Amino acid sequence: MNDSQHDGQQHEDSQHDGQPVNRLIHETSPYLRQHAYNPVDWYPWGEDALEKARTEDKPVMLSIGYSACHWCHVMAHESFENDETAEIMNRLFVNVKVDREERPDLDEIYMNAVTAMTGSGGWPMTVFLTPGLKPFYGGTYFPPDDRYGRPGFPRILEAVSQFYRDRRSDAEEQGDKLKARLVELAGFTSSSETLETGLLDKAFTGIAASYDATNGGFGTQPKFPPSMALSFFLRDSLRTGRRSALDMVGHSLAKMANGGIYDHLGGGFHRYSVDAKWLIPHFEKMLYDNALLMRTYTEAYQTTGDAQFRKVVSETASYLIREMLQPGGGFYATQDADSEGEEGRFFVWTPEEIKEILGEENGRLFSRYYGVETGGNFEHGTSVLHVDVDLDPLAAHLEVEPEALRAVVSDGRQALYDHREQRVHPGRDEKIMTDWNGLMIGSMAGASRVFGEPAWLDAAADSMRFILDAQYEDGRLMHTFKDGRARFNGYLDDYAFTVAALLDLYEATFDPAWFTHAVTLMDTAIERFWDEQDGGFFFTSDDHETLIVRSKNPYDNAIPSGNAICVLNLLRLAAFTGRNEYRDRAGKTLSLFTDYMGAAPGGFGQLLCGLSWYLDTPVEIALVGARQDATTVAMLELIDRTFLPNKVVALHDTAAGNGDAPVRIPLLAGRPAIGGATTAYVCEQFVCRQPVTTVEGLAELLKRR
């Protein structure tokens, strides 16, 4: 265990603002600090807790959650704030509280253990460990008393402690078996199969088999936004001309945008829906979901030109800059599901409230459009706003002019938003997380190119500058920043997502400094995370604290796999630099996970995007000319509005005085401007077609793809 310099502060200030506190008062995590006033004698993860467990021969009760988690709050109120339950915990266990967002390494290991034990996982997660940190029992939410056919938490605590005391060898044996299972899960063997497009076809068929043709998305409830799978489908449609792939993307994105999972007043997406229709969300808003969806809607707009997709991107970007951007740069992590002790209270409405704000007739029309009815679709007679019928057919049904209804909806959204702003807002977790910021910075930079929004690019660039200033120490990334402190060794995702964002920033600004940072960090990731024996990247660095297993995760979960993003980073860098060792590492990583992509393609959407690039011949576009020249601007607009995902774009801005750009970026080397005019080189593996100096000429070259 590391980062224990604050763990030993114990209770020297056991009163805070007149209230008793535990050790968590010294932590920067808002989630941990939420538990600082519990009567539980909590420890943060650190050497002090391990030493106490060893010395007193007590099992560790490890509780993992996050600040925006509704059921984490429920269990805290029911159990961790209860004096009798806390007394049992303090007497029988060493109690350790972990923020899964700060310690995804611990969360992954022990979530795999709980899933192996119970068949499912989730948060809050409760795991009982030997002093050697081997899990021997666990679960998710435990009620405070016996209910739903499940034993209450106090009974669980007593039973687990007695099992550990009376059947110690059985507890150790169970821990050894689970540890062996975790080591097995972390091991992968390269396939002898050749990487080929047949795997992409097989993966498409496998994922499409679970498509919900009625509601969009995949599977049934609960339903999570399938960003990575939809991105793969967009690439499949481009590669094969398969219309069904594009139709599934468009249908899914439209259904999500109309559903209650989307915040129709403030913009942005909630975490997931509890039903198959995208109607009732779990109301927390996560930075990563909005980053991933922003990118997917942007790519879908490039492909289809659908105005609804542009609207969603614009409203989501506005929400993120308004509510999730730290002054000076850096995006906050999450917004809570609860306010005033109730889930979703901030977001829901009754017909009476709407009529009081908008007036009787306008309130009636607005409520019909957004599905707000007497009795409601949520709790306490309230409703989540959603759209079941498009505006024009609804206007015809209601016998009103479409423009009149459109005005009612537009004005009503603003009026209800203004009214909602007076409510008690959900809590916000103001950690700045390097990996999630990488996702958001890249999406914001990419969307700024497509939609021509400089404010979005400014937000992205400011945030990257903050990360490199505050969360980059001695050539290494740190994972989080809060209260003036950067903490925790960077994980693979921090490096992978930051490198991707730096490349996105380079392609949006053509400042070579962003590109140089990307190369430096990718090379650091190779040095510290690459598995020289089997290939692929470990989740933790070679100098990370020793845990019971060193994992290597290729699966997409709530966020893309770091291995998958590294594959794309390596392929992009190979295209920019011509360095074959980057491409070779990407190929070795893909080969390591080939069998798994074929067996369970739904968990590999991002890696399949990487495979699609690897099997394609990517387009290398080098522009030489003044950045503000009209021809340069027009060429970049053409490139940006074209969905061509397997490409890189470099610019030597001859008016900017950055004459070293061709030195830093080999794709630009030896590419002169012809006759002083902006010149475009379209290349494959550094072999270029005849350069062109007109937008029409560039369009013709891109059409040949």
Can you describe this structure?
The protein is α+β, with helices and mostly antiparallel strands. The protein folds into 5 domains: 7-185, 3-Layer(aba) Sandwich (Glutaredoxin); 216-312, no CATH class; 324-334 and 428-505, no CATH class; 345-420, no CATH class; 619-703, Glutaredoxin (3-Layer(aba) Sandwich), CATH 3.40.30. It contains 27 helices and 21 strands. The strands form 6 sheets. Strands 10, 11, 14, 15, 16 and 17 form a 6-stranded antiparallel β-sheet that branches. The longest helix is centred in the middle third of the chain and has 19 residues, at 402-420.
Topology:
Layout: E1 15-16, E2 19-20, H1 30-34, E3 43-44, H2 47-56, E4 60-65, H3 70-80, H4 83-92, E5 94-99, H5 104-118, E6 125-129, E7 135-139, H6 153-166, H7 168-185, H8 197-208, H9 227-240, H10 243-258, E8 272-273, E9 281-282, E10 285-286, H11 287-304, H12 307-323, E11 332-335, E12 338-339, E13 342-343, H13 351-358, H14 360-369, H15 391-398, H16 402-420, E14 428-433, H17 434-451, H18 454-470, E15 472-473, E16 476-482, E17 485-489, H19 492-509, H20 512-529, H21 562-577, H22 580-592, H23 594-599, H24 605-615, E18 619-625, H25 630-641, E19 647-653, H26 661-664, E20 679-684, E21 687-688, H27 695-703
Parallel strand pairs: 3-5, 4-5, 18-19
Antiparallel strand pairs: 1-2, 4-6, 6-7, 8-9, 10-11, 11-14, 12-13, 14-16, 15-16, 16-17, 18-20, 20-21
Helix pairs in contact: 4-6, 5-7, 6-7, 8-9, 9-10, 9-11, 9-24, 11-12, 11-17, 13-14, 14-16, 17-18, 17-19, 18-19, 19-20, 19-21, 21-22, 21-24, 22-24
